Amino acid sequence: MQLGFLVFITTALIILASSSDFVYANTLQDVFAGLCGSKSLMLCGICVALYSFGCCLTFLIIVGDQFDRAFATFYGLDYCHTWYLSRPFVTAVSCSLFILPLCFFKRLDVLSYASSIGCVTIVYFVCLVIYKSLTEHPKNVPPMKIWPDSGYEALQLVPIICFAYQSHMTAIPTYACMKDRRLGKFALCAVISMLICFGAYTIVGIFGYATFGPGGVPSDILQGYDDKSIVLAVAIIAVAVKNFTTYPIVLYCGRDALLGMFNVDLNKIGVRVIVTLVWFFSSLVIAILVPDISPMISLLGSLSAIFIFVLPGICLLQSVILKDPQLYLNKDRLMIVFAILLTALGAFACGVVFVEALNDLRKDPSEPHHVVTGIRQLRESLCV
After folding, report:
1. Can you give the pTM of this predicted structure?
2. What is the mean pLDDT of residues 327-347?
3. Closest CA to 255 of 63, 32, 105, 97
4. How far is residue 174's CA from residue 192's CA, in Å, rounded to a whole number?
């Protein structure tokens, strides 16, 4: 499933970069508006803003999870009764110190060094999961399941794959910030990046599954390890750091979409600061009040299918028609067919995932049910 989707996902990244060259735009909503008309700017901007805000919530929730895990292990299960170790206080202080200062920049390329640090931390995280799987052998772990029982079960992976590989919203701003802005170089970067993601996701999935067994993998895999080793503590910190460095990038896209919808100049520092502060503190409050990540990933997986398939498909369709209205070239005819296929695939994936996500949210967590995300695990707080 991953490899099959990866072909379309990587191709869609290249399509978006090519479309941005065609209309000379530097954001997804501007590219879409340039190809489909100014009225489409509002629709695309709303999608970008909603998805960005949802992702920001997810990152803050994960940060809170990491601190909960660390305090429960090294302090004790009554950590939240100490005010300065409670989740609301620690999440608010740490995010205000490490995330907020990175959110005020005007361009994405300023965040390149911070993002590189975040990527290095994930390498350590992957190595930890492998190490734990090879050194710890839990008893009564069922054998690993290799094949799905039905095609429907395989479709339940779609939201996870879409959410995990969704970098299309930031692809055009990233392409605009490249020192050597060439489509060929961007295509190479996109292929290598997606292959690295594929390797990391697959390794963590396989070794985590081998360690905890079917149905036993926590939504935050680090919460499945109960030792107090320094190795684990570093991994917990690493995941928090990764989210500290990723949040500003997503906020950048959402803020641009909001300002673009209302035709506000991004160069106005005062407006940029106010929007950033409102965005950050509203997401922080919601993340503290809603500490479960699983329903968010369900709904975001549906919206991410639009960014991965539908919007690139429409951009490809429009750019081909604008270049060759009569479709004289066979290459352009093939491009039209591929664009329709990509858009149809995205519409199908989005619809299936959204309906299943709504059904999943209506069910009681104690009921046995199909899991649309594969990680829905509504849990109580670690604190007792």
Report:
1. 0.83
2. 90
3. 105
4. 15
